[in-house]
Amino acid sequence: MRAVPLALLLKKRQRREWMRRKRGFSPFVRFLMGLLVIVLLALGAGTALTAVWMSQITAGLPDVSTLPDLLSPSGEGVFQPTRLYDRTGQHLLYTLENPGLTRRTLSIDPARPDHLSPEVIRVAIPLLDATFWENPGFDASNLLDPYPQTIAERLVLNLLLDREQPDSRRALRMRLLAAQVVSRYGRRQVLEWYLNSAPFGHLTYGIESAARLYLDKSASELNLAEAALLIPLLNTPALNPLDAPAAAKENQQAALDVLLEKNILTPEEHQRARSTPLRLRESFPESHSVAGAFTTLVLDQVAARLGRQRLERGGLRIITTLDLTLQQELQCSVQAHLAQIQGQSYQAILPDGSPCQMSRLLPTRPPVERASEALTASALVMNPQNAQILAFVGDTSRAGEAAYLSVHPAGTLLLPFALVTAFARAYSPATMVWDLPQDLSLPNLDGTFHGPIRLRTALANDYAGALSRVLQPMGGEVLWQLAQALGLEDLNFGSRSGASWESARFSLPQLAQAYALFPNMGTVYGVQMEDYRPLQPVTVLYVEDGQGNILLDLTQPQSRTLVSAPIAYLMHHVLSDESARWQTLGYPNPLEIGRPAGAKIGRASRGKDLWAVGYTRDHLAVVWMGESTPESQLPSLRVTDVAALWHAAMQYVSRDLPPRDWEVPAGVSTVQVCEPSGLLPTPACPQVVSEVFLTGNEPVAYDTLYQVVQINRETGRRATVFTPPSLVDEKVYMNLPPEALEWAQSQGIEIPPEKYDAIQMPLMPENAQMTHPAPFAMVHGEVIIRGTASGAGFTFYQLQAGEGLNPQSWIEIASGDQPVKNGVLGKWNTTGLEGLYALRLQVIRADQTVDTAILQVTVDNTAPYVRILSPLPEQTFTLKPRQIITLLAEAEDTGGIARVEWWLDGQKIGESRVAPFSLPWQAGEGQHTLLVRAFDAAGNMGETSLITFRVSR
Fold this sequence. Notes:
Elements: H1 3-24, H2 27-58, H3 67-70, E1 82-85, E2 92-96, H4 118-128, H5 151-159, H6 168-185, H7 187-197, E3 199-201, E4 204-205, H8 207-215, H9 224-230, H10 245-261, H11 267-275, H12 292-306, H13 308-313, E5 317-320, H14 324-341, E6 375-383, E7 388-397, E8 400-401, E9 408-409, H15 415-423, E10 432-435, E11 451-454, H16 455-460, H17 464-474, H18 477-485, E12 505-506, H19 508-515, E13 523-526, E14 540-544, E15 550-553, E16 558-561, H20 565-575, H21 582-585, E17 598-604, E18 609-615, E19 620-627, H22 639-653, E20 668-674, E21 688-694, E22 706-712, E23 728-734, H23 741-746, E24 768-772, E25 778-779, E26 782-789, E27 794-803, E28 811-816, E29 820-829, E30 835-845, E31 850-859, E32 865-870, E33 876-878, E34 884-892, E35 897-904, E36 907-912, E37 917-922, E38 926-936, E39 941-943, E40 947-952
Parallel strand pairs: 1-5, 25-31, 33-40
Antiparallel strand pairs: 1-2, 3-4, 5-14, 6-7, 6-19, 7-8, 9-12, 10-11, 13-16, 14-15, 17-18, 18-19, 20-21, 22-23, 24-26, 26-29, 27-28, 27-30, 30-31, 32-34, 34-37, 35-36, 35-38, 38-39, 38-40
Helix pairs in contact: 5-6, 5-7, 6-7, 9-10, 10-11, 14-22, 15-18, 15-20
């Protein structure tokens, strides 16, 4: 019984002892114990974080064991230059090297037969890595510096990490690899590898090649002065003796001064080296390419992806998109065509001695005055379905091809892209424009003006003045937006001014890429060289290193849809309309190739730069011709000359392919319209044509360009109700705006008379008159007729209306048995009526005599058709402060538009009275609503639906 209480007592005593000891711990001890726990936890967490961090640093770290193969003189590494091949990989196009210089490796061991001059080692180590023989391969004092401090770091950065971004991660990876390579291969091997592989500028790698290139001697023979010239190039390879001889000599003198300060040189050695003459080369032949301009484009694209240093270092095999046979045919044809235009002979033979087939497809050129000797041409052929450039001949004169990538003013070749944007804003190929005399840098090719024409006709014939009339109210923004997305970027577009397109300059690859939008129905293909940049044409299929590893694969291009298929089809439909070009180019002409194709001629610089661009489903070609001396004249160069070369190229590449046409995409409709107004036909329309529209954008208004006017054949004035019917003739006239009257007179086009026939009935009797509406007025809706019906013997009056100039029947409007004097005679409801009407007032008196008054009016109850072209519903503008947005609308009415009102956010902000109807508006930030109202001469109003758009900064 006592055992249980005793056990409980012992437990209580133990508990009290533990509590006493706990209370006995000092606060400092408890603090230390807590701190210890925290430190242990932190160390554990830090270890885990360090492990994660190190795994990120070392992830994908290159293996230093690859260096011996990469640096082997007998392998395919840095001692073999980069080579470019055609698309088959069988034909060498270009070797990226200094011709005649074989890359060799020399030992740093003076006991070896082929060894470096000891002066090279003596100069290199103090200038590049003073602690080279002591450090572990890296500089521990600058662990996070992404740039190399030691020779080992330079080596691994050049050969293993050259494509990594210069950040702290690269810094640590570089130093890890530097330590590994020194530990594994030793300092002497690291130094030898570096000096034999490092870049010395001007496509030169390794000090042996540098010595041969700049000094025409071996690196084993270099003296102190020469070593001091070459070693600084490792820091500034661009300042080499060929490209910058003065800067190279300055750097040599500075290097000798540093060596003196570090006591590497004695004063006597320093002075002797400074005064030692340097026998430098002044020039060196460059490597020749089969396709100079194309090669430049290839090298730029590869350098953008792999880096210029990796490209020039060597060991790469680049398989390009070039079709060598097509390239040679195009080169031969360009030369043959230039010779033909200049009246010279040329033997059109390919390099293998076979005849040039493409040149035989050049259309015969009639004998004219010989062209300038300064004439230059270039041409490009591309596959629009994958954006691969198949052939590219850069600017070529009779002296040969330039190897650089040139740009030229594109001029009217840019206008289709502006009109594509306009098509999205309710314009169509049927939209009427006026081709009228004006001050033009690019007059019409046929030397005449054509008055009212469709946009289709203006674009097909390159009527720059007429097209400018359309673009001007829309502003440069219309062209800028799509051009930028297509990669047509030029400083002239920076201001986004309306006239900037006339001087913007682009290369043939840029324009080919842009025009591929049309055969691809709104989609472009290509390769993106930088983030957020437009796609570029493809010049490279793949790039591999000496071990066969694929470093860059561009066989599958990227794609972007920039324009909807229906809008792209509308432009293609215009560009493929052969008959639309006949009035300028004639029939047949070089832009016709016997199969479905789209084509466009272009002009710039007052006609001194001429273009032809066009496509089938399978190929696209761009041709430019111009002058290398701007001050000379080319009186005999014609657009058909540049089109002829395009014709030959397209005929050649299409020779074995079946013709393929385009399907009409959903969202496109065909409507019969009046030529050239593009509106619905009326009986007065002289010609009806088919036109394509975006579904929902078909015309709803009837033609207003042509009108039937009744005239008195004897007086030539407009007939009235008083003109004897036997003298009335009906004639169709153009409804011309004031600015077109002079043109119409010069073309012998009859202008409708403004005055009405002077033949009048006797004056209205004093007691039977109509004073409102006025004679020949335009009326609509309910018309209040005022006047007088009174006088002696008044019994009653009748008010009647009859249709036409000489009504055959009359309808009573009103009547009254009470006299009216200068008051309301009646109200005429004209709902449903249109056209000419006569009003007749008859006052009947007690003696049965009748006084009559007649009045002629025109009834117009059709409200104007109006729609907003810009902005589009829900469109967002991103603008600079105080920038102007041009509001644009289209309005049509048979009786003419009196005015157009602009209502922004519920407030009227302006009026337009002359087409094209536009209003410059200083944009205000935020969301806005826009409503447009149009009024005709009769007072009818038409209005658009309310649209919403936004302006942001």
